[in-house]
From TrEMBL:
GO molecular function terms attached to this record: glycosyltransferase activity
Domain of life (superkingdom): Bacteria
Keywords, alphabetical: Glycosyltransferase, Magnesium, Transferase
Classification of source organism: Bacteria, Thermotogati, Deinococcota, Deinococci, Deinococcales
Family membership noted in the UniProt record: Belongs to the glycosyltransferase 2 family.
Cofactor or coenzyme needed: Mg(2+)
Pfam families xref list: Glycos_transf_2
Protein's name in the database: Glycosyltransferase involved in cell wall biosynthesis
CDD domains given in the database record: DPM_DPG-synthase_like
Domain Glycosyltransferase 2-like per the UniProt entry, residue ranges: 10-145
């Protein structure tokens, strides 16, 4: 199955990622499928850089959080399959993209989740410690749209993971060799990045308490 025949789209949620989003768009375009960047209330040139790199841009205002950005990206395409990528990746190749997308397109899996390997000490460690929080995923668009509370979650990975469990989906982790991310502490400055990371982890950890079903109380 050639990449040019894929009924798929790449969705890249992005918030103030002007330094890296163009590189990710260029890497994704080798699949010859639509690339949708959702600029989630960005205050920099994320939208302009993404358009210049060849992406379709959905420009949100105000900021909705990653879940809202993904939901907006899903609304912007009618592709059967979607590949989610973070906007701050380094080292992404066609082989990485196909290793995520093709098993889902072929019907072998309902979802793939990318995990960094040999990309960098800190990003490798963080991704291996919490691989279920990875933003690199492929699945059917309709399946992802059915995730409860997707658009409401600032960090939607726990909601997606919970839907995987409840739906009985067939999935697996896929190693992404020599891929890494630009750390928040580098992008935003150490203290601002650390504050942002702490807020992210707080939202992630509180998911189950916030979304507990009445029967679980």
């Amino acid at each position: 199955m050639g990449a040019s025949t894929l009924d798929a789209a790449v969705i890249i949620p992005a918030y103030n990622e002007q330094e890296t989003v163009g590189r990710v768009v260029e890497a994704a375009r080798v699949l010859n499928v639509p690339v949708v960047v959702v600029s989630d209330g960005s205050k920099d040139k994320t939208a302009e850089v993404a358009r210049a790199a060849g992406a379709q841009v959905v420009d949100l205002s105000p900021n909705r959080g990653k879940g809202g950005a993904i939901a907006a990206g899903l609304e912007a395409t009618d592709a059967t399959f979607v590949l989610l990528l973070d906007a701050d990746l380094v080292g992404l190749t066609r082989e990485h993209l196909e290793s995520l997308l093709l098993p889902v397109v072929r019907g072998e899996l309902d979802m793939t989740i990318g995990v960094f390997r040999s990309g960098g000490l800190l990003t490798d460690f963080g991704n291996r410690a919490t691989p279920h929080l990875s933003g690199q995923r492929a699945c059917r668009r309709e399946w992802l749209q059915a995730v409860p509370h997707l658009a409401e979650e600032r960090w939607p990975e726990p909601a997606i993971t919970e839907h995987l469990r409840r739906s009985g989906a067939n999935w697996r982790y896929v190693p992404l060799l020599q891929v890494s991310q630009v750390m928040k502490e580098i992008k935003r400055g150490f203290w601002s990045g650390l504050k942002h990371r702490a807020k992210m982890y707080r939202d992630l950890v509180s998911y189950r308490a916030r979304r507990r079903e009445p029967s679980e109380s």
